[in-house]
Specification:
This protein is of the alpha+beta class. The chain has helices at about 5-10, 30-40, 45-50, 50-65, 85-90, 140-165, 170, 190-200, 215-230, 230-240, and strands at about 10-15, 20-25, 75-85, 95-100, 110-115, 125, 130-135, 180-190. The protein has ten helices and eight strands. The strands form three sheets. Strands 2-3-8-4 form a four-stranded antiparallel β-sheet. A two-stranded parallel sheet has the order 1-5. Strands 6-7 form a two-stranded antiparallel sheet. Pathway: Pyrimidine metabolism; dTTP biosynthesis.
């Protein structure tokens, strides 16, 4: 490796995630249009906007009584960069989702790795179903950062060594850990996103408590912020009805 390539291959460490809304076709009027065609036939968007209180009430009714299909007539595409272990959980959500993730077969993977930030609770107490997370001591935080960074450096050096020897990328990547950052495009509709948020975020208005891993919750919170801006009436109805997807 040249000095320049060696410099570019130095590992870097992150405690955050990236979530960007890259394109969308999503608004509350999509829900109204889909719902009212059942009873009133085709209507123009101008007609749907004339009575905002009625529109708010209809969306709340659909959410409350779990008439879900009107919430599917929209689309949001997000660019997400997060540790691979986040994507392992993400890909359990299949209905209403489409994914395209970067490939370690076709490109050299970059050395960006996850290390928990100072606000990440590190210690699990209790047993599954009854456990909680607490901050952890300064010593535990120090050893976590040190050991992770050392492990990441060793793994990426092994990866680079195999690539330099001519080993195929799809073979060499086997030594890389799940703390490596990957990226993907994820496309969903509001109904599928609500299912995701119901499981992957913790919220005081949730009728069914959820206890997500913090790193995927960070992704969910950023996705929810974008969605709430696009579909404020739908988002408000979701919260008002216990954050249970219709």
């Amino acid at each position: 490796m040249t000095d320049a390539s060696a410099e570019s291959a130095k590992p870097s460490f992150r405690s955050d995630v990236t979530v960007e809304l890259v394109k969308h076709s999503a608004s509350d009027t999509d829900v109204l249009w889909a719902a009212r065609v059942s009873t009133a036939g085709e209507q123009s968007l101008d007609e749907l906007r004339k009575d905002p209180e009625r529109s708010k009430g209809l969306i709340n009714y659909l959410m409350r009584d779990r008439h879900g299909s009107p919430f599917e007539h929209n689309s949001m595409t997000f660019f997400i960069s997060a540790p691979i272990f986040v994507f392992r959980e993400f890909h359990r959500h299949r209905a209403g989702w489409s994914y395209n993730e970067e490939s370690g077969r076709y490109r050299e993977l970059q050395p960006v790795f996850y290390v928990p930030g100072g606000d990440r609770r590190l210690v699990q107490e209790g047993r599954p179903g009854q456990y909680r997370f607490v901050e952890g001591s300064p010593e535990q935080r120090a050893v976590t950062g040190r050991v992770m960074e050392e492990s990441y450096r060793q793994a990426y050096e092994a990866y680079q060594e195999m690539l330099a020897a001519g080993v195929a990328r799809e073979v060499a990547r086997a030594v890389l850990p799940v703390g490596l950052f990957s990226s993907m495009y994820a496309t969903c509709n509001a109904r599928s996103l609500m299912h995701f948020l119901g499981l992957r975020t913790r919220h005081e208005q949730a009728a069914v408590p959820s206890f997500p891993q913090r790193e995927i919750e960070m992704v969910g919170e950023r996705m929810e912020t974008e969605w709430a801006r696009l579909m404020p009436l739908t988002h408000a109805a979701f919260n008002a009805n216990g954050r249970v997807a219709p």
